[in-house]
Please model this.
Amino acid sequence: MERSDVLVVGAGIAGLMAALKLAPMRVTVLCKARLGTGAATDWAQGGIAAAMGSDDSPLLHAQDTHRAGGGLTDDAIVEILTRDAPARIEELLELGAHFDRDDAGELILGREAAHARRRIVKAGGDATGHEILKTLARAVRTHPHISIVEEVSAEDLWVENGRVLGVVVRLPSGKTREFRADATILATGGIGRVYRFTTNPPQATGDGIAMAARAGAVLADMEFVQFHPTALAVGRDPMPLVTEALRGEGATLVNDLGERFMCDVHPDAELAPRDVVARAIFAQMRAGRTVGLDARKAIGEAIATHFPTVFASCMEAGIDPRVQTMPVAPAAHYHMGGIAVDEWGRSSLLRLWVCGETSASGAHGANRLASNSLLEALVYATRVAADVHGALPPARDPARRIVAPALSAPPDQIQALHDLRHLMYANVGLERDAEGLQSAIARIEQLDAVHRNEYGDLRNLLVVARLVAEAALERRESRGSHYRTDHPIADDAYAKRSFTRLRVVA
Ligand code: SIN
Model:
């Protein structure tokens, strides 16, 4: 058994920033991959939204965040998010992050869909997440109070007398080990892997949500899954992202007949909210068309230097975006739902805090504004660390373990995983209806009955899949990223966030 003051599960932007801010407490960070890899942060292209321009303000940023959120954002949380954004950027600069600057040395602020101002801070054109993860990993690796445990999967929360006292971890050898701490912070990222088409890394298996759900935590907004409109459709899994910033710089969407269809869909055309663009592309695909992103005229040769990540992904797939359109399709990108937290990142379970995509704070409502995810992770990591500093309880209670995983060796789960991911994209994806959701839930329950006691990602993905599908069935309206073909209009009766717990199935 290992002991520390604070255990951080997850090593993306949220987990690593929380760890740095918790020092000089003794912190252990559990990473599912090697430190500095495997986190969605590494692949984030867009950047960090912050009102830093002279024509901008936190209020304007907040207004855009609320508008994107479809009426479900929390006023107080959005105010904190937008107010604290510039300070969080300054801290990253102090840690040594290199953000893009103009010839006068000023930060370059990019434009993205549904932002009224240029306010996206970037690095390396479209390699912002990589720069941030590199910076944080470097700081964590050399920190005297932080221990790193790599390539381990957290399997279950360790709960005694209703308090979270750590986690049970699966080591690469297949054995389990207990990591105990006075405070546990979950920052395990998103759930993208539950979908057949996703921009998330394979490690995004909803581990934090599944562990907390099994331990009885309250979850929120589970039905809201954001699909990015433009993932590169070249047969790769995960799909490489084609950043929205290309559309911000004028790239257009065309179908294989050469028609620019977004002008007929929304007054903001390609810069319409993400869910609108994603569904418009999906509608083209359902009608038998393919869709390409055309950056030739708007960006041209500059794509190679201004968007090197996108350029490299295209060239690897044999597409030259300077002279060809990029084939794109919508892919699961971000989960607005997660473990319900308050404004300090406290969950409903004692001694359990959550930050980043794993949490549902109300910052994003029914749909997240572009480039608010890295921001929320930074803001919440900071608040969680501050709260943990002030809150560590001294007392320990006698041991009574109430979450005891019954583990067996993993059988071949590949087919079940394949089934689940297809099912989720088809029935619980961009468009949903009662019939499809009900049959998805029935199938998930069948799979769960077979695989519930096996260790590995499938066990967590089945929990997450059921929670998303059940919440989607419950919300009989369309709002933000949640679109019901059988209830296509927003309904005031549902103009509130959803909260749930995992239903125990016999
Ligand atoms: C993008 O670059 O389009 C993604 C940014 C984000 O998800 O906020």
Remarks:
- The longest strand covers residues 176-186.
- Residues 45-46, 243-245, 333-334, 370-371, 373 surround succinic acid (CB under 6 Å).
